[in-house]
User: Fold this.
Amino acid sequence: MDGNEIRQLRGYAERVLTGTGIGLDDAEAVIAGGDTSAVAVALRAGWRCAADPVPALPAAPESEQGGAR
Amino acid sequence: MSVEWFDLAQRLYAARSGVPVQRLAYTPFRPAAVALAVRAVPRGVATTVTVSAAGTGERAGSGRAALLLLAESGCGFGGPDPPMLLTDTPGTVAALAVLARRHATDADPRVGAAAAVCGWWAERAAHPGTSVVVDLVAASRARYVLGTDPGTEHRAGVWRRWLGVTDDSCTGLHEWAAKIGHGPLLPMLASVHDDDRYSFGRRRDALLAGYDWSRPDTPAVAALGLRSRCESAELWEAALLHDPLWRHRAVHTGHVTLGTVATSTAPARRRGAAVVCDRLDSRLRAGAQVCGWAGSLDTVPYDRFHAEVRAADVAAGRLVLELSGIGAHAPAAGAAVCLIPQPPSPHTLRATRQRYRALYGQRSWLSTGHTPAPRRAARRAARRADRRRRGLTQLTPEAPPQLSRKASDPMRIRTPARPGAPTPRPASPAPAAAPAPGAVGAGWPGSELLRDPVLARTLFSVWSGDPAVVVPSPPGAGKTRLVGLLAAALAHRADLRVSISAQTRAQAVELARRLSAVLPDHGRAALIWKNNTPAPDTGGIPVVSGAAVRWPRSGGGILIATTARWLYADPATLAADVIVVDEAWQMTYADLGALGALAPQIVCVGDPGQIDPVVTGDASRWAASTTGPHLPAPVALLAAHRSAVGVVRLRHTWRLGAASTALVAPLFYPDLPFTSRRPPEHLSDRSGAVVPELAHRAVTVTAGHTDPALLGACAERARELLTATLTTGRGALPVAAADLAVVVAHVTQAAAIRALLADQPDVLVGTANTLQGLERAAVVVLHPLAGYRTAESFALDAGRACVMLSRHRAHATVVTDTATPAVLTAAEDGPRLSAGKRLMDAVLTTATV
Assistant:
């Protein structure tokens, strides 16, 4: 990541967190904590999903309903 | 929506780790045997193309030579499988399409074939989930998220750097595709790939047969093309929900609902269950078909269940979904369940498209696009002959058309006013007033039409043989009443078979109820309903399904169904004389063209100011066309066949008062001026002071369009209005919950406000889409731009704003965001923005409450 990208990401993060009472520098602490506010729950879910993506996938055969079976 | 926070966390993780984070566990496209990496750039009249086949370096050419180059690289019909196009520049597909059209009929078969494939690529690019055209930037954004501002993800260079692709030539696109296209394919996309291969074969056969693919689309080709695009879009949306990573994200967009089964009932065959949801912002609502399973989000097991959401209510601050019709694998009480919208069945989609093709194959004047000659006299003569054959009364060209079966019957349609002449004001202020002088006596179903010259003109226009009649109507002008009376008159006095096409099941039931009040003989009408589902209350009109759907053996009749149902009808058994389309501005021209196979005459009644038809597919191919298949049916119909279409405009609203009419009419109906004929009606507050018809309340918003301050202001205003008094011609009564509605732009806003008003379940809370066609004495309107900090296109939709501001009779309060005027000022100019600004200015001139 170059310096410009980091600046842009910080600006984006601050916009998204406006009004939540959470600063960008507190985000990782909120994720690691036990806060159950909507913003904390969503941040934690996104972080966990990024850190532990589903390990193995079955090749999904098509069913009549179109779903994995 | 909390999805912005979910995404932010993923971006922060990616920034920290320095590698892209996966959004999809499955790949969104399947690698092909022949893949061409292409960049095309228009330069003046020529197009420069750079191409690289897998394992080869890149080569460049211009104009016809570029097509030869593509042909040499494998762009043609030589192989059994379609060649795949890889690109990283958004203009490539469009530039190739322009080049291909220029050389579509080239004498060299290699150039012709390459041009045909390029044209086919351009079509397939509009089908989400296709594997034959892969925009690598878009595919990368679908599968990964980067540790950057989302705006930078539109740049190919950013992706190359994050993915470690060092070769920025066309050849490097193959490496890029390999890096993002690994793993098993998203479930459900096989159906789109079948379509890829099928349409490739058709294009090849057409080319061999000498067909010029570059000709403009016929109505049938356009309609089927739109249908195909919409099906792909629906399959793509459903496929995403079959990806475990996407499902985790979709919890935060409301597309996946998690909850616990509170109760599970087990009647003889089909179970019901109440699911208490973890969150309020579910997108599921009453009437939705769902698929669910007990267990976690990570896997979709084989033993999943299917159900219909019978009701969605908020109790004790929790959203409770009542499911009905659960067959196998019903979850037990206490089980944690995941619910997603029922995915479309590829088999059903194929069957629907075949029915659609069959209706277009009937070659009606609408499906062929050949405008019938204006031939009222000829059609009258044909009808006279037909009626003579059927033993009915003749019409004489000299006299106004009689609708009586007996020559001695004095009932006649009055001579209609000329189009464009001022509309005389009815003698009475109410639509159901006494007959005007000169009108004939009442006594036959639909005879009330003759009391109003404008309504009588509609009947005259149909009866005199106009192939199509369009009736544009402002809100609250009595459209449903007109449809009911018109159908009754045509069926009972002219012995015609009349189909009524409604856009939703609720509208169809409402039409049946209205007809029940008009028709003396309910046996001549029927509502077509889904098999094995409880019949609705139609006021006595029979509800039929399956083999019972048929016309009366003699005389006229009326069949009511949704447009979706009519698109399944067999013209051999269910063809009618006239089809009346209710809420026709919500129907696409493609669907109207298919319905043309069912009746030679069409009547379109609707409100031109409301929300356009929902089109899920990419319609950009017809963006410049005035007769595109995606357009509201009456708009395209008038553009395509003006000389064959009679137009009768309704000029009065019986719902909106003078102040609301003065705001709504110039903003949303510049071509349909109308006036208010609403009888006096107003609200008064607790002190007895009259509440102005329109008012606004500004709120400071800091947390988006679901900010609790914003939604709380709506609920608070609704509670204030519940303490008011409603005065109408029938006297003064306290405002009841059933007199009140709250209308918002988003499903999530509606769910949250419903929760805030959980102790007032009779207050109608819904989105503009769900409240279309409904009215209440008082309405709280949440301005569609409230909470936004950019002027989003969705929030600027004039149809949505029009619906929201035209549901009330006595009073509307618009809840606004103090920042919205600045947002509108900062946005780039455009027609939508201009209308949005004028609306905001008009709202801010109303009283502050």
User: Anything to note?
Assistant: Residues 392-441 of chain B have pLDDT under 50 and may be disordered.
